[in-house]
Design a protein that fits this description.
9-stranded mixed beta sheet, two-stranded antiparallel sheet
Length: 389
């Protein structure tokens, strides 16, 4: 039996993000990919694995061709926002088993620019076919699904709208430290609560921004780490889980599939949630952050509201810095944002985040990070635990 190889992230980069009116999604893919390879200091000829979703009729075939790659291992798993954590898990397994030596994960979207130019409208639903046909006639939009889940948590556990608003406030505080974030002006709980209603109980600032942008991550086998210009960030463990296709099939709106993916990731990594220094969590809506913190084991079920109070999620002075770049609520959210979580986690562990850099109590750089993505309407989850080199 061949020994399994260790796997490291050696390249992580973003394309131009935020307001990008003069680029195509393919161009953003290419820009992020080039930057990730430059970050690693490796040539694209080493890349024999490729993963992409969300663009083209035959993703990742079309994107790989655009980038001039001819991979012998591919992944086009598409499970919404958790796609990239799930892909990272698959890539790590492939590299560890010797099926690939270097796998490039890439994403790019012009979601904001397309709406502005009239090439598309805002996404209210995912369509009317399959299981969705039983919900769409009742006007149950994508945002409404998250709002309904949040309301269930409020009823079950007494979670308050002010506590949910704190998630947005602290994400904005972290974004204020990130020069690349779309929105950096501090906000208050009152400002969150007084905004226009989108889907009860969510006002506008409970919801993610719409942006353009791309991201890329390069994973390699341990024997290539010595050739890289960056410090390796090791993939210690990962887990994935799918839950339900329709809201009527979801047994408990207060438990996300991160309860399973997180447990698997931590078990496989051999670490406990209490050891994590920084967490990057999918936050299309404030409730996603709160419930994922519970399900990953950072606090008990029903205690998420109390946990997010008193600045715990802030880079500056927070007990568990969460979404250190400002997250989807303030930094950028060009669609399936899961790959951005991995990029930020890697940068934090390498100490590259400038003013928003997380430090442990003794002043040293963080050693462990978790990135947890959620897809659909809490239909899927992927969680990856990373360790500094």
């Amino acid at each position: 039996m061949v020994a399994r190889r260790k796997v490291a992230v050696v390249g992580a980069a973003l394309s131009d993000c935020g307001r990008v009116d003069d680029a195509t999604p393919y161009a953003l893919h290419a820009q992020a990919a080039r930057r990730a390879l430059t970050d690693a200091g490796l040539d694209r000829t080493l890349v024999d694995g490729f993963a992409s979703a969300g663009l083209g009729t035959l993703a990742p075939v079309e994107v790989a061709a655009y980038l001039g790659l001819r991979p012998t291992w591919v992944d086009s798993t598409s499970v919404g926002g958790s796609t990239w954590e799930v892909m990272a898990a698959h890539a790590a397994d492939a590299i560890a088993a010797g099926h690939a030596r270097a796998v490039l994960l890439v994403y790019g979207s012009t979601a904001r620019a397309d709406v502005r130019a009239g090439r598309r409208t805002g996404t209210l639903s995912f369509g009317t076919r399959g299981p969705l046909q039983f919900e769409v006639p009742y006007g149950h939009t994508l945002i409404a699904k998250y709002a309904m889940a949040a309301r269930r948590h409020m009823i079950e556990y007494g979670t308050t709208i002010e506590q949910l608003a704190e998630v947005a406030v602290q994400a904005r505080a972290n974004a204020a430290l990130n020069p690349e974030a779309m929105f950096r002006t501090p906000i208050t709980v009152d400002e969150v609560l007084s905004g226009p209603m989108i889907a009860d109980p969510f006002t506008k600032l409970h919801c993610c921004v719409r942006s353009d942008g791309g991201a890329a991550v390069l994973l390699v086998a341990d024997e290539y780490v010595r050739d890289c210009r960056t410090s390796p960030v090791w993939v210690l463990g990962a887990g994935e889980c799918v839950s339900h296709a329709a809201m009527s099939e979801w047994p408990d709106f207060t438990v996300s599939p991160a309860a399973v993916s997180g447990r698997l990731a931590f078990e496989r990594a051999g670490v406990r949630p209490s050891e994590i220094d920084v967490a990057e969590i999918y936050d299309a809506f404030t409730y996603m952050t709160l419930v994922t913190l519970e399900d990953l084991g950072f606090c008990a079920k029903g205690e998420g509201g109390a946990f997010v109070e008193k600045g715990r999620l802030r880079v500056e002075g927070g007990e568990l810095p969460v979404n250190t770049d400002g997250g989807g609520l303030s930094a950028q959210h060009p669609g399936m944002r899961g790959l951005f979580l991995l990029v930020e986690a890697v940068r934090q562990l390498r100490g590259e985040c400038g003013q928003r850099q997380v430090r442990r109590g003794d002043g040293t750089l963080p050693r462990l990070a978790v990135a947890s993505g959620t897809g659909g309407w809490f239909c899927s989850s992927g969680t990856v635990v990373l360790g500094a080199g």
